[in-house]
């Protein structure tokens, strides 16, 4: 069989071209990866500021709504607060999804989002409801211990392995915020710090279900890589609206809450502000969890408690002692060394 010399030469000339193309693709991917690594600190700072601004405002107004005596009494329904948050959140998510993808599309079964939607609704309900029974410092104290449940939930749901140093970070950050909280609660009166058993149960509901939510969302991102933060937000809030609306109608709290808002227009403004900051906060939450993982997200939200306590001290007249400043130093020192350790890796 005769061999065509032109064909051989052609094949020989194609091979270097293929190699060059493969090399170019590899170089482009490497360059893109380096650019992504360089932009990571900037994006983390952006997420940090966005989460702090959203949830400091949200926390302040939340405390106001659940503890303030309006002209006809206290706001009657924690479930209604959760529902109003979800309504605005799904509108924002819907607009963002259409803008990003040109249509409403979720590249995963809707049932995949049901567990974290249920847990998200229950954690939000527990957080609102707890303020009827426990003091704000005690609720803040409970949030400061959330890192450890999040890590344990990560091992259970996502089979994640954490280094001992990460558990050490969790304990140190929790201890720092605890010192801050004790400084605040230690100066409160006995009536303010006294809690009911039901209130402690509400805090337990919040911690357990909130830890489950972020880890399940991380699992959905892993199982369905095509899902972005807007689609996650849309799907989760779709389920949440159905759940909370059903609960409001069955309990009769929908009519009671609407009647209360009509009698107290200020309560409407407060609910709208909670809904707006909750929606922007959710955008940052889903992006942070997708980009940096649930543990980094929890660190950011844990440090938020310090700022929240400071805002509460200024707004509601709570005094801050030496332990508060000591706790602040512990938290930020721990975070500094964590970032330093990660950068060396």
Q: Would you write up a description of this structure?
A:
With 345 residues, the chain is mostly helical. The protein has one domain. 83% of the residues lie in helices and 0% in strands. The protein is built from 13 helices and no strands. The longest helix has 63 residues, at 5-67. It starts with a helix and ends with a helix.
Brief rundown of the structure:
The chain has 345 residues and is mainly α. The protein has helices at residues 5-67, 78-101, 114-130, 136-144, 147-158, 164-185, 190-193, 197-223, 229-251, 253-263, 265-292, 294-316, 322-344.
**Share of helix among residues?**
over 70%
Structural class: mainly alpha
| Biggest sheet architecture | none
Distance between the termini: 59 Å
Number of domains: 1
Rg, please? 24 Å
Instruction: Provide the β-strand percentage band.
Output: under 5%
- Counted by DSSP, the helix tally is 13
Average pLDDT, all residues: 79
Count the E strands: 0
Reading the helices and strands in chain order gives HHHHHHHHHHHHH
- Outline: globular
Low-confidence segments: none
């Amino acid at each position: 069989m005769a061999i065509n010399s032109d064909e051989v030469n052609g094949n020989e000339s194609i091979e270097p071209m293929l190699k060059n193309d493969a090399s170019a693709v590899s170089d482009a991917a490497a360059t893109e990866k380096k650019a992504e690594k360089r932009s990571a600190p900037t994006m983390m700072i952006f997420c940090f500021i966005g989460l702090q601004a959203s949830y400091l405002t949200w926390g302040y107004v939340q405390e106001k709504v659940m503890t303030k005596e309006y002209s006809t009494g206290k706001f009657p329904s924690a479930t209604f607060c959760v529902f109003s948050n979800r309504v605005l959140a799904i509108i924002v998510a819907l607009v963002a999804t259409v803008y990003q993808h040109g249509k409403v599309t979720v590249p995963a079964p809707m049932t995949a989002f049901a567990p974290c939607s249920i847990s998200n609704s229950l954690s939000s309900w527990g957080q609102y409801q707890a303020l009827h029974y426990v003091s704000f410092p005690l609720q803040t104290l409970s949030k400061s211990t959330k890192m450890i449940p999040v890590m344990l939930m990560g091992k259970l749901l996502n089979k994640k392995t954490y280094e001992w140093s990460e558990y050490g970070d969790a304990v140190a950050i929790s201890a720092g915020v605890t010192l801050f909280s004790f400084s605040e609660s230690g100066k409160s009166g006995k009536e303010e710090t006294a809690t009911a058993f039901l209130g402690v149960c509400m805090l337990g509901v919040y911690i357990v279900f909130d830890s489950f939510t972020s880890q399940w969302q991380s699992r959905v991102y892993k199982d369905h890589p095509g899902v972005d933060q807007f689609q996650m937000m849309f799907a989760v809030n779709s389920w949440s609206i159905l759940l909370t609306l059903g609960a409001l109608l069955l309990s009769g709290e929908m009519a009671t809450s609407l009647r209360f808002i009509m009698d107290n227009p200020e309560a409407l403004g407060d609910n709208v502000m909670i809904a707006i900051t909750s929606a922007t906060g959710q955008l940052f939450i889903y992006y942070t969890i997708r980009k940096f993982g649930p543990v980094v997200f929890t660190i950011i939200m844990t440090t938020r408690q310090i700022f929240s306590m400071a805002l509460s001290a200024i707004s509601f007249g709570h005094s801050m002692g030496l332990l508060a400043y000591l706790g602040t130093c512990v938290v930020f020192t721990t975070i500094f060394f964590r970032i330093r350790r990660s950068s060396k890796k």
